[in-house]
């Protein structure tokens, strides 16, 4: 991740005007959503007799950064972006701990300790909790770098997708659709369970319904875990998710109203 990514997180959280308790509630909802999605994915993979180590990350973890954050900003503005960061951070931690533990014998803690998004989230949360605004020159610099992140995320997404291929199209279509439905249904249930309303509810559902994260393919390729199948799931779920995104945005705007 380049420097603009952490800057986006710090900038978004430092400008968030919601009470800290609402942001913490979003973190709790994000964690519950991740855990329940993992549980649901485990059940589906066991029923289908597919290797859990290879396919679980692809079904459990969505593309909450490259795709989710731009959509949160588009649908809900700066407030939605800040709340979307809470989901993004939760899933990033899950991605960099769950996936290495499943697919590699190496400890995930080194990867986690060298991931800038974690430190950026901590700094942003401290600023949010204390109601502290950085000095103007720092805030302007962070804001400019952070603003670069949205187009960079979309460019990175397009560049990576252009290199992926679906070698087993029916398989990819089936499990890509499962990823989208599972994420949406779990997010809907968690939003009701946590009694979220307004923008937080819309953001949680929007982020929960994201297609498979590209990092799922990168990890699968690195650890030789059915990378071709994971590439197909990433590609198909992203295409289907993009086609359905107008309907999804209309829906989340409706439930957030």
Question: Which terms summarize this structure?
Answer:
single chain; about 260 residues; mainly alpha; 11 helices; globular
Topology:
Layout: H1 4-15, H2 20-48, H3 52-60, H4 64-103, H5 109-113, H6 116-130, H7 136-161, H8 169-193, H9 198-208, H10 214-223, H11 227-256
Helix pairs in contact: 1-4, 1-6, 1-7, 2-3, 2-4, 2-8, 3-4, 4-7, 4-9, 4-10, 8-9, 8-11, 9-11, 10-11
CATH topology, by name, is: Na+/H+ antiporter like fold
Distance between the termini: 34 Å
Total strands: the figure is 0
Mean pLDDT: 83
* CATH architecture field: Up-down Bundle
Shape, per Cα inertia axes: globular
Strand coverage percent: under 5%
Q: Runs with pLDDT <50, length 5+?
A: none
What assembly state would you assign to the polypeptide chains in this entry?
Answer: single chain
* DSSP summary: helix tally: 11
Order of helices and strands: HHHHHHHHHHH
**Residues in helices, as a percent range:** over 70%
| CATH top level assignment | Mainly Alpha
Rounded to the nearest angstrom, the radius of gyration is 17 Å
Largest sheet: none
Structural class: mainly alpha
**What's the structural domain tally?**
1
